[in-house]
Design goal:
single chain, about 35% strand, four-stranded antiparallel sheet
Length: about 110
């Protein structure tokens, strides 16, 4: 299977998640970004345990696009250290993977 990935990031606001998602899809760096939330995150930050409401972005893309995805997220993200994690897709339905492939291709001339 070719190198498809799912990248995750979290944001404080739905508007931030939507801005990141739109930029990635418009640039064809992502075929789809699902925004889930609100979710509750509990984490350690600068020596303290914190709790925060966040929005989770599930970004579907190609492994080769990870660097550009990371750069785009960092340029739009308000967090000092945003979560940017990629997981390889080791399987998927043929129809869905064909759809991903088509969405990540260069736009067709019409």
């Amino acid at each position: 299977m070719e190198g498809f990935i799912q990248v995750t990031t979290t944001t404080e606001t739905k508007a931030d998640a939507e801005r990141i998602a739109l930029e990635l899809v418009e640039a064809r760096l992502a075929a789809c970004v699902q925004i889930v939330g609100p979710i509750e995150s509990i984490y350690r930050w600068k020596g303290r345990i914190e709790t925060a409401g966040e929005w989770l972005c599930l970004i579907k893309s190609r492994e080769e696009s990870f660097g550009a995805i990371e750069q785009t997220i960092r340029s739009l993200h308000p967090y000092e250290t945003p979560e940017i994690v990629a997981v390889a897709m080791t399987g998927g339905s043929r129809d869905y993977l064909d759809w991903l492939r088509g969405q990540l291709a260069a736009p067709c001339e019409e």
